[in-house]
Amino acid sequence: MKTTRKGRLAEVKVTDTPQFTDERGSLSVAEGMQGIPFDVKRIFWLYDIPEGKTRAGHAHKTCWQSIVAVHGGCDIYLTDGQEETTLSLSHPTTMVSIPPGIWCELRNITDDAVIMVAASEYFDPEDYLKPYSEFIEWIQDTL
């Protein structure tokens, strides 16, 4: 999953969380500011996503998000409005942290996927940038 990114996409962090395994199974952990680059105010998870559907499809003005495929997997399409990249999540030890101002879409979601998201902010509909044209307009105004 290593990739070279430039511009704002370089702020996207891909972290391999510690994994502890013994005869009882495995455990992975991300503690505050050690793996997750912000204080967590909200956690939510996505599941039972119908085949062919996408999730996210927005950017945030102020909110950071860290995404983990707890089960199954997905591709994460990211763009800063100029450059784009796609990262694959398929193991529960891999976390992608996305700063504000990056458009994100979850694609190719497996039918068994459980995707957990930790957010730096409480839910605020005013923080969302969607549709894509609104995101591009906002990016151009902030440059």
List keywords for this structure.
single chain; mainly beta; 45% strand; 1 helix; five-stranded antiparallel β-sheet; globular; 143 residues; Jelly Rolls
Helix content: under 10%
Query: What is the 3D form?
Result: globular
Uncertain spans: none
Tell me, rounded to a whole number, the average pLDDT. 93
Give the number of DSSP strands. Answer: 14
- How many DSSP H or I helices? 1
Count of domain modules: 1
First-last Cα distance: 29 Å
Largest sheet, spatial ordering of strands = 1-11-8-13-6
Q: Helix and strand succession? A: EEEEEEEEEEEEEEH
How big is the Rg?
15 Å
CATH class designation: Mainly Beta
Major sheet characteristics: 5 strands, antiparallel
**Which structural class do you get from the secondary structure elements?**
mainly beta
| Oligomer status | single chain
Relative strand content: 35-45%
CATH superfamily: Jelly Rolls
Output the CATH topology. Answer: Jelly Rolls
The second-level CATH architecture is Sandwich
